[in-house]
Amino acid sequence: MFWKKPKQTSDIRDPLETEDQREAFRYIFKGDLRLSMDFKQKPVQVINISAGGMAFRDEGFAQYDVDQIHLILDIPNYRGELEFSAQLRILDISDQGICHCIFENCTIQEYEIIHKYVLEMQKKEMMRKSGNQMTQNQRR
Questions:
Q1: Is residue 8 classed as helix, strand or coil in its secondary structure?
Q2: Residue 84, burial from CB neighbour count under 10 angstroms (0-12, 13-18, 19+)
Q3: Cross-strand partners of 44
Q4: Less Cβ crowding at N or C end of the chain, within 10 Å?
């Protein structure tokens, strides 16, 4: 006779299965530290960015609107080209008035620049947070 071994359940979740998986590859701007750009000749401020696309507040745009955008990415410790240009298309406009967009016709190098930017911005934020915690601990 063969007995099936009962499956063991674990409370430990696989980090790749969490709902926040996308956040690891996206930078969410906070406070006054936002990228600004023009979309369809209207100034907008970027809410978040990833190699796949970005989000910004709706300023009267329509779903599937498309425009060529230009950004100057301030990437610490990067000696390459800091200007990023791509075609950006609005895929969806949420009920909260957020345009969710995708980059189109980008080269691998352009996607890599955005990945590098997101990574460096996340590292910069972590350093800022750890510095603030150290300052608070010193005050105690």
A1: coil
A2: buried
A3: 37
A4: N
